[in-house]
Structure formats: structure tokens, C-alpha cells
């Protein structure tokens, strides 16, 4: 197969930088153009010196007619940007992988409730495939439009899915307590993101409702075949990268042992190259997934009571965003699912 021509819209943020880093080592893809209105004319390696020697591209103003010449376009943009350009790109037979939230929620009214504006192309919501490869690989392969999952939703869904699919837990009272590094807030100047504000501190936020909640409930409900109710509390970690999710659920049949649950998870993810079900008693750490596309999962059942605790750790910028987007691209174009994503996580 010829090398894929990739376009990136919104290349100056952290997810855009990660797309550049990962595609630079991809054997079957190359970035043909990268856009930024604010940095138009600036060399990519000027803004990201780590990419010196890997690209000679300059940022350009986004132009749909030029982007349409690409095989696939990634949107690494805030919400409400992709939906303004996607219809025209699809009409030109360009495939789309959107890392924003524009197409994750299939109900346009619900999307508007959480994002406080009208969706501009609700007719595409039913077509968009939610890009969690471990759940929807077959649909991803034939998709024109991928809605790449959020970072919290990725770590939480991978931890709950085997239990929900086998109807082993009470889905009316799921709990997820998850913490993310500050890069999850994006590359923007905000007081709350300053080093002196986050260092040596730990806090919850979005407790009354976080925008990732509806997509998590949507996808878990689909897996369950009925409505799922999740209490989700995110936290801010005083570190750059990583998400650690602690997931709580009540098992329906107390006779089901922890070893049986371990076998279930190992079987469920046996063919998933980027899910590592760790041995019983393990506690995954964010530093063991930093820079890689792996999700590490471990199971616990404290005091052998009815509460199952699943621990899930990912890099929010890789498996939680750009790495997962490339995993989707690989599936869309019939490439090896792990192409360009085999790098080992950084430790220490």
C-alpha cells in the first residue's frame, strides 16, 4: 500500500504535537499538511524543536480544498471546529478522525445540553463511529468518520466493559474516581494550570457533571443493552501526563471468584494489542504507560466482599487521544493495528 497522506487541523496543541511525533515513526503514513491560523507560516520544528530533523513542514491556514487531497484528516481542535468542515471533506471522500467531542454523542439535543450550543451537522451523528478499537474495530474498518473517545472515557470503559458485557455487575450504581495529569486541560494559558497552582496539590473538579460523562454512559449502556448510571468524579494530578481510574461496581453473584474475573478480562483482551491485564494483586502506575499507547488494568476484590475494584492506567495524550486516533487510522486503512505505536513507555 502507498504511504497515506495525512492532514492535521489544529496542530499546535498537545494532541497535535503527539500526532506529529507518532506519525513521524509510522511506516505507512506521513503528514502532508498541518494547519494553524495563529502560527501560519511558522515552521513546525520552530514551535516543537523535538521534531527537528523529522519534518520541514510549516503551519498553514486551514483550507478545505487542500485538506481534501489528503487520505485522512485528523482534527486536534476544540469542540465546534470539526463540524464546520467535516461535511465538505466527506463529500470529497476524505476520511476523518476527530479528536474533539463534536461527534462522540449521538443525540444532538444531549450534545447541546453539555456543550451549550447547537450542533451544526446532526445528520452525521448517526454515521460517526465511536473510535474505541477494543469495542468497535469492525465498524471502524468501514468508517468515513471516527469520533475518537475522550481520555477519561477510554480508561473507564476499558475497565468496565468485560464486567458489563457479561452482565456480572449492577449497572445502576457504577462509580469512577479518576485523576489526570494537567496536559489533559490542553495547551493554554490558564491560572489553574500554572505550576505554582497545581504543584504539591490534588483536587477534584467537575463533580456536579463533567462533559465526558454522557459519552461514557452512552457507550456502556450500548454494551449493557440497557441504561447505565455512572457517578464520575475527575481529579487533577500534579504531573504532566497520565490518567489513573479507580472503578467500583457491585457483583451480582457473590459466588463468582476473583480468579474467574481475571480469566474473563484476560480472555476479553487477549487479541487487544494495547490492553495489558496485569496479574492479580497488581497496581498499575501512570509512569508505566507514559508515552505509550497501552492501557494497563488490574482487578481487586477488597476483603472478598461484593465490590469489584478495577484499576486502569493510560497516557491521556496517547491511548487517551493521539495514539488511539492513529490506532483508528490503522484499522480504517487495513494496516497493522499497532503500526507506528510499538514504542515502549518511558521509565523513569
From TrEMBL:
Gene3D superfamilies: Dihydrodipicolinate Reductase, domain 2, NAD(P)-binding Rossmann-like Domain
InterPro entries: AGPR, AGPR_AS, AGPR_dimerisation_dom, AGPR_type-1, NAD(P)-bd_dom_sf, Semialdehyde_DH_NAD-bd
PROSITE patterns (UniProt xref): ARGC
Enzyme class: oxidoreductase
EC number in record: 1.2.1.38
Compartment annotation: Cytoplasm
Catalytic residues, chain numbering: 151
Pfam families per the UniProt record, alphabetical: Semialdhyde_dh, Semialdhyde_dhC_1
GO cellular component: cytoplasm
Keywords from the UniProt entry: Amino-acid biosynthesis, Arginine biosynthesis, Cytoplasm, NADP, Oxidoreductase
The UniProt record lists the keyword Oxidoreductase: yes
Pathway linked to the protein: Amino-acid biosynthesis; L-arginine biosynthesis; N(2)-acetyl-L-ornithine from L-glutamate: step 3/4
GO molecular function: N-acetyl-gamma-glutamyl-phosphate reductase activity; NAD binding; NADP+ binding
Matching CDD domains: AGPR_1_C, AGPR_1_N
Reaction(s) catalysed (UniProt annotation): N-acetyl-L-glutamate 5-semialdehyde + phosphate + NADP(+) = N-acetyl-L-glutamyl 5-phosphate + NADPH + H(+)
Single GO BP term: L-arginine biosynthetic process
Domain Semialdehyde dehydrogenase NAD-binding, first and last residues per copy: 5-143
Top-rank taxon, per record: Bacteria
HAMAP family according to UniProt: ArgC_type1 (MF_00150)
NCBIfam families for this protein: argC
Function noted in UniProt: Catalyzes the NADPH-dependent reduction of N-acetyl-5-glutamyl phosphate to yield N-acetyl-L-glutamate 5-semialdehyde.
Family statement drawn from the similarity comment of this UniProt entry: Belongs to the NAGSA dehydrogenase family. Type 1 subfamily.
Protein name: N-acetyl-gamma-glutamyl-phosphate reductase
Species the sequence originates in: Spongiibacter pelagi
Taxonomic placement: Bacteria, Pseudomonadati, Pseudomonadota, Gammaproteobacteria, Cellvibrionales
Gene responsible for this protein: argC
